[in-house]
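Data deposition worksheet. Section B asks for the primary sequence of the deposited chain exactly as it was used as input, without tags or linkers unless they were present during the calculation. Section C holds the resulting structure in token form. Section D is free text for depositor observations; keep each observation to a single sentence. Incomplete worksheets are returned to the depositor.
Section A, Depositor: J.P.
Section B:
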Amino acid sequence: MTEVLAIIPARGGSKGIPRKNILDFSGHPLLTYSIAAGLNAKSINRVIVSTDDMEIAEIARCYGAEIPFLRPAQYAQDNTPDLPVFVHALQWLIRHEDYRPDVVVHLRPTSPLRRVKQIDASVQLLLDHPKADSVRTVITPSQNPFKMWTIQANGFLKPLIKTKRQEAYNLPRQALPKVFWQTGYMDAIRTSTILEKHSMTGNRILPLVLNPSDWIDIDTPDDWQKAENLLLSGKITFSKLGFKL
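Section C:
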């Protein structure tokens, strides 16, 4: 049987929206939506929260997540990337519980309106492709990077992407390569990718393509209000998400 672990990283020192992981989001702390989604996913065996914060830990535990450890402060800084957080969690579980899952699902608290069926789809996609290192959710973006620019020190524009196509930035959108934007909605990753390849993705990454309307990420107060309004208005329901709180 494949062992699948969901890890929800939730440090206490968020800056854009202070304490956002435990602020009330339509009646429940923001973090708890990701916990509920993980607990209701058929593919997931365990849901743990990696946090450095006692208050976050207590709330997460009350909503059914496991808190086997508190994350050391060195892995909870503003500039801490995901990899050391996940390495710490996995190594702790191996050392203290002799537990090593086959797959890790990364659930970010900033995507509270995540559909359970898409969690299961990402895990199944990874399991169906043994040579894949990970699955990453993507959407078709509203803008194409072939039409993006940087401004040089001399003040002139320079195309962001170099290409053999002459003046690709002047081509119609339909003539440009189809591109995808990584959402951070969820990732399914083999444990070996994290611990042995020292990567959160590896180099063999499969896409789970989402409808852009399904992707909601909370980074600013405006994002928060828009996401909360979707629930309050009934445009998104718990029935559609696949879990209740």
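Section D:
The longest strand covers residues 181-190.
Strands lie at 4-9, 24-25, 28-29, 46-50, 103-106, 134-139, 149-151, 157-159, 181-190, 205-209.
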